[in-house]
Specification:
about 325 residues, alpha+beta, 5-stranded mixed sheet, 11 helices, about 25% strand, binds acetyl coenzyme *A
């Protein structure tokens, strides 16, 4: 059997901090409301010179360094995002250029906030089938460029960031032991960015040149509370494990109440759940890889642990898996 071990990881968040108190000056909200409904205290916003590509490249370089590989060793780059700086070329191709990853194929995946998980699962299949042995997976979103900062229902929730991992073929169980993907296109209207009606409206409004996110918060909330727990449970079952075998939960960071519900569903105590939503808000596709980087740094996840990763997002979409953390035994010779 071939597995796709995670052998490198990296993250980038912008320096600028937008606190709940800052938001009180911008819309009719309060620190109390935001903290009690979401758990978020602050989020990071990209500076004018930063782009989704620049954040992705920063995270990707760290991941390659950590894995000990030169960019020329990468055979495939998959970037999960729904806030690309432009429609073409893809961020994956921009990362390809910036890294000088001359041998790599490159493409983007869009599954809204689930994009990184979709990208990770897709990349894992390329490794497991033997087509590639070294793959770079990035999750990045520059949400602040697509938020209406007069809409209190969305602007308090989102932040910017990027996270990346390197996958390498391993002969021992490592990386994803199970993979769950799902979608419900019939409910896509509850969370949109640039739907045709909005674009038609914006075409006549010069001061709002970009499309922005629109959300039915309570509908998304109900969906997320159900699906995060169900998807986590399915991933554990598919891996042939029980709840007792799970060492940690690393969930998409959208809302503390959604995270708590997911943990309850798989009977995991709070101390085994990685949470950073209070510092970054919802960084969408970057949320899970940023959590992995910080959780590893703090010793919260260690080699040999079974870590449930799970996310949901617009589409609607969801994805989950059980990750066996650690390098396994990497089979590929390294091209340094
Ligand atoms: N400050 C103060 N009041 C607010 C704010 C705010 N920032 N936002 C909404 N309210 C008000 C509403 O207007 C409403 O007022 P009303 O009763 O007078 O109409 C009231 O608070 C309650 O609104 P609800 O939507 O019922 O509040 P809820 O408890 O559901 O919390 C929230 C809202 C935090 C948005 C929640 O629904 C949620 O987290 N939903 C999921 C959102 C999410 O995770 N989105 C990411 C999707 S991932 C992706 O792919 C992009």
């Amino acid at each position: 059997m071939r597995y796709a071990a995670i052998t490198g990881w990296g993250m980038h968040v912008p320096e600028r901090v937008l606190t709940n108190n800052d938001l009180e000056e911008m819309v009719a909200t309060s620190d109390d409301w935001i903290v009690s409904r979401t758990g978020i205290r602050e989020r990071r916003l990209a500076a004018p010179h930063e782009t989704a590509t620049s954040m992705a490249v920063a995270a990707a370089k760290q991941a390659c360094d950590r894995a000990g590989i030169a960019p020329q060793a990468i055979e495939l780059i998959v970037v999960g995002t729904f806030t690309a700086d432009q429609q073409m070329p893809s961020i994956a191709c921009e990362v390809h250029r910036e890294l000088g990853a001359a041998r790599a194929a490159a493409f983007d995946v869009n599954a809204a906030c689930t994009s990184f998980m979709y990208a990770l699962i897709a990349a894992t299949q390329f490794v497991r089938t033997g087509m590639y042995s070294t793959v770079l997976v990035v999750g990045v979103d520059i949400n602040s460029r697509f938020i209406d900062y007069t809409d209190r229902g969305t602007c308090v929730l989102f932040g910017d960031g990027a996270g990346a991992v390197v996958l390498q073929a391993s002969e021992e169980p490592a990386g994803l032991l199970s993979s769950v993907l799902g979608a419900d296109g019939s409910a896509g209207h509850v969370l949109t960015l640039g739907d045709p009606e909005q674009l038609a409206h914006l075409n006549g409004v010069s001061e709002m040149p970009r499309p922005y996110m629109k959300m039915n918060g309570s509908e998304v909330f109900r969906f997320a509370v159900r699906i995060m727990g169900d998807a986590a449970a399915e991933a554990i079952e598919q891996a042939g494990l029980t709840y007792q075998d799970i060492d940690a939960l690393v969930p998409h960071q959208a809302n503390m109440r959604i995270i708590d519900a997911a943990a309850r569903r798989i009977a995991l105590p709070r101390e085994k759940v990685w949470v950073n939503v209070e510092r970054y808000g919802n960084t969408s596709s970057a949320s899970v890889p940023i959590c992995l980087v910080e959780a590893e740094r703090e010793g919260f996840i260690r080699d040999g642990m079974n870590v449930v990763v799970v996310a949901f997002g617009g589409g609607l979409t969801w994805a989950s898996g059980v990750l066996r953390w650690g390098p396994g035994s990497v089979v590929r010779e390294r091209i340094a």
